[in-house]
Amino acid sequence: MTSGGKPLLHSTELSYPVPRNFSRVGSLGCLCTNNSFTSSVCDDSPMSELSNMREEEITSVEETNQLKPLEGPASGATKRLFYSVGSRYPDHLSLEHPSRDRKRLVSWGGMEQHTFEISGTPSRVQGKLQERLNNSKVLCHKSGQLDDNIFREQNPRLIHIDDPRRTNDKYEFASNEIRTSKYTLVSFLPKNLFVQFHRVAYLYFLAIAALNQLPPLAVFGRTVSLFPLLIVLSVTAVKDGYEDWRRHRSDRKENNREALVLQSGHFEPKKWKKIQAGEVVKICADETIPCDIVLLGTSDSSGIAFIQTMNLDGESNLKTRYARQETASVVADGGSISGLVRCEQPNRNIYEFTANMEFRGHIFPLSQSNIILRGCQLKNTEWIIGVVVYTGQETKAMLNSAASPSKRSKLESYMNRETFWLSIFLLVMCAVVALGMGLWLEHHKEQLDSLPYYRKRYFTRGRKYGKPYRYYGIAMETFFSFLSSIIVFQIMIPISLYITMELVRFGQSYFMIGDKHMYDSSTDSRFQCRSLNINEDLGQIRYIFSDKTGTLTQNKMEFRRACVYGKNYGASLLSAESLQDGNIAGLKGVAAVPRGRWKLKSEIGVDLQLIELLHKDLNGEEQIAAHEFFLTLAACNTIIPILGSDSREQNEAIDYQGESPDEQALVAAASAYGYTLCERTSGHIVVDVNGQKLRLDVLGLHEFDSIRKRMSIVIRFPDNSVKVLVKGADTSMSGILVKENERDDYIMITTQGHLTQYSSLGLRTLVVAARDLTDAELEEWQYRYEDASTSLTDRSTKLRQTAAFIERNLRLLGATGIEDKLQDGVADAIESLRQAGIKVWVLTGDKQETAISIGLSCKLLTTDMHQIIINGNSEDECRNLILGAKSKYCLKSSNCHVECRVECSKWKKDVTKDYLDIPDDSKCVNRTPCISVEKEGTEAASLALIIDGNSLVYILEKDLESELFDLATSCKAVLCCRVAPLQKAGIVDLIKSRTDDVTLAIGDGANDVSMIQMADVGVGICGQEGRQAVMASDFAMGQFQFLKRLLLVHGHWNYQRVGYLVLYNFYRNAVFVFMLFWYILCTAFSTTSALTDWSSVFYSVIYTSVPTIVVGILDKDLSHRTLLKYPKLYEAGHRHESYNLPLFWIIMLDTLWQSLVLFYVPFFAYSTSSIDIWSLGSLWTIAVVILVNIHLAMDIRRWMVIVHAAVWGSIVITYGCLLVLDSIPAFPNYWTIYHLVKSSTYWLTIFLIIVVALLPRFLCKVVYQIFWPSDIQIAREAEILRK
């Protein structure tokens, strides 16, 4: 209130003139169901109406951002500050009008992130994070990105009810036919080839095949040269074609479904694809909604309908939608409806809908609670009738059908480095051949017609005798030799590797999905592998970023504590079943508590003293406060009561459906204490208060959003008194509470103390308050509410301003503490992951005390850790806190003093516990330990960083990010509290953009989508908050504890397998190419080949491909028991033991040796014989296949029947193919194999090749394993000894 006694809003330009002939709105008629305390929904519109707010009315940084005790103003000045700002936006968000150059952030998963302006200066965080998210190709998840112009539409869509012709004539809206397929019969071939040739390697092989078609370069047969590329393209095309055929079949089935459409006054069946905007449709129970419709009426006289949005957002709980009473009454009476709907243009936001309806001369607003989206199912409602507003591709479900961003594994990116070196080898070999050929031709240019391999003219008699024979001169022949060499050596870049990796990843995913140890019986959910591109990244995770609620905890809330009128309740709880007749008759002032009429689905513990207080007469302030406290819990929510019957107990069973587990727990608790919500409609609710039903008219509901962080409901009591009931986060409620006397001051202080106590116990807290509304305040609020709710521009902003008018001067009733228990196995999983060298960071929206308590219980934090807490309210303060912490603990050795370094060198590292032992006599700056972070693995195990989202607003700036990075990476544990979804993505990007470490983000809700998509690996939890996170993830599972097995077992296996697979493919193809290279050097650099064209093609496609795939899927270096027992074995992935550049060069040296042996042993063995080149070619073919398969067999750790069949069977298949090819008279190698196998020299030569080629490798493996064994080798020997 101002000094003049008027509400402060009257003194600003925000006030609305109250019309003299104002007619009061009786009821809201619109009750949105998407408000919850776990998923915030709001818009990002600039608050233009606040641009003229006086500067002195803007809250200062310290007053708007600190976690203050729940106490009112101490002076008139401060009181004015509470009223002016707290009544509007008392939390830490600035009300300053955004500057023109301010960029707004995108919304993630339908949850929009707002600019966190605390000091009043525009922040650069949102623009920078937005740019990084775009650069990282992070797409918005299916729940939708809200366009900035949604609420500024100047050309709204006009829908004429039951007049589709008039609706569609002018605008030509989309038909209701959907299409999710990518191709048609005509476009399949060109579009599919275009997509496939996005891979550069495919373009390379296409160029090779094209070069081979030229006569001067025809090294292989023209058809044969196309064979490898055609196989790869055909396999992929068949797979894509089959998938698209299934999409066509699904689309056809969907489009041909039927719905009842109003035609000529009667509802008649009509195919979905023919439904048009403006038509009126009727949906019966359990049917699916064919398009986005505005609800006109339901089988329920109150206009309420229940829907399930499982197909849309994955949530299985029921939600309510409401028809306006104006139309619902007409539908109930059987009348015809005609009118006009003005709605926003189609957009992706499934949680917002802005529209107005003109009906019988009246204009009233429509919101998200009045629209039912395509894909939803009608439940517990006989029928509904609605008008179509969006159809086909313009429905919100179809607009949100964009796929998650594709990701590439780190190992695949490293593979490009090795591919580059192989390309260098290829070019060098081709250059050597070309140069050698040029020199050879220059030296023998006068003898070309009398030497083998080259000639200028035809020798044979005939019409071409004496004519030139494809000789183009020395220069051109040299150039053609270079191109021909590329064709001959083309498999140095293995085209088969790409399809092999896809098949191996598919097989790995099959076994991960089938792992019974990752099956969650409570939710009946198996492990899901939604991305096949990053399996091996699971074996190299360095950082895990985890949500808390629903990820580490069960997200099944239980009401534990209550603070009512400053008194704490809940220390000792009894089951409600024990409170039978006379059970508490001995309690003071209470005769007996009658048996409850309502039977809850689950039992709630109650406090006897609180029960006693509630059963007293309402003749004292404490009794009245307790009554209003539980009335607020029962009324201020969007919970839907589902009634049933319990024949055994002769009670009415009641269950509560809602989007927020917090709200369900609060309503159930209110019922346990005698305040049972038993009926809810769009206009009223009914609460059973200890057996007496109390009907309350709902005049308005202000949804929970991430700016206000609270929710309020305006209700009228039977005695015509009007109250506003409010619940919200303590930080958002502290500035809007009134303190009129010392009693209020005492209640606030004690309540704040209880809130701190609840948080230290790990409980989620809410503050409950209320106030009476005068007739004048009610009238003004209703006018403002009507004006705001019917606005098509900035509706949410105006509604927040309207809510601020009544959410002030509130009387504190109490606070609640809800327990969200840890999931099973979380503490053990985190400890194992930490032993594996993985850093676990928890990013949560909960308050700091709650997060710390959960961190201790899940072993993320330990009691011996030094906690570094960053709670800054300005950029300078945050900088000082970070630099102070770094200075105190000497976290940068380059900045440490010399004496500090000396003391640091005295420390001894405890390997078993993975932390540093600090001697008692160690001295350092400020008498605190000094920690060096220059060397990996020496981070301080005794440090934990705890930081809040308010500080991150300032820290996620360019000049502070590096400081935060140095501090955070030096700590063993990091806990971020009160963080917004986009800040979670910013934290992930902080690590991802500054290191090459692989990051993993895991969460269960829509607020985790941005984090999941930003990380290298995203994991979704199938939890209580729907499936938004699952749909955006790469992998999905039922519980956090499965992450331990996923990483330590499957991640380790996948990385070992794929790393070996890539290096083996490089070796397998390189040894073949080097063998051809040595042959060409001995044949006057002529690029001729001793191998047939088919043998060259079949080598990597048929002869050697199957063993690679089988081993890549099934081989195991260690058992799962060993990997789980010794988590440190996972660090092999961190050290890149299975795939690194030095290992690549070692393999290339080994390959070089084996290729020399492979070529020269037969060369010298048959040097004195008259064997032809085709016979040598058959020998080299079978020898190289046997060699690479025995090479593979030396590295196999797990032999199975199928592995034996693949390895030795490939050799048998190679012999079979050679027998077939050598039996064809048209081929130059006809019958050569039959002559060779009769010779003992042939078999001895193969034996010598195998022994001599593999002997150095065998000796190196033996020596290395004896003198320098790896952790994996030691663990493997231990496994063998245990057997």
Automatic annotation (TrEMBL):
Enzyme active site: 547 (4-aspartylphosphate intermediate)
An annotated GO BP: phospholipid translocation
Superkingdom of the source species: Eukaryota
Enzyme class, first EC level, given as a word: translocase
Record PROSITE patterns: ATPASE_E1_E2
Reactions the enzyme catalyzes: ATP + H2O + phospholipidSide 1 = ADP + phosphate + phospholipidSide 2
Membrane topology, as annotated: Multi-pass membrane protein
E.C. no: 7.6.2.1
Transmembrane region(s): 224-242, 420-441, 479-499, 1070-1091, 1097-1118, 1139-1161, 1173-1192, 1199-1221, 1241-1260
Binding residues annotated for ATP, in chain numbering: 547-549, 663, 704, 727, 764, 844-846, 978, 984, 1007-1008
CDD domains reported in the protein's UniProt record: P-type_ATPase_APLT_Dnf-like
GO CC entries: plasma membrane
Recorded GO MF terms: ATP binding; ATP hydrolysis activity; ATPase-coupled intramembrane lipid transporter activity; magnesium ion binding
Essential cofactor(s): Mg(2+)
Residue ranges constituting the P-type ATPase N-terminal domain according to the UniProt record: 159-224
Keyword annotations from UniProtKB, A to Z: ATP-binding, Magnesium, Membrane, Metal-binding, Nucleotide-binding, Translocase, Transmembrane, Transmembrane helix
Places the protein is found: Membrane
Binding site for Mg(2+): 547, 549, 1004, 1008
PANTHER family, per database record: PHOSPHOLIPID-TRANSPORTING ATPASE, PROBABLE PHOSPHOLIPID-TRANSPORTING ATPASE
Similarity section: Belongs to the cation transport ATPase (P-type) (TC 3.A.3) family. Type IV subfamily.
Protein name: Phospholipid-transporting ATPase
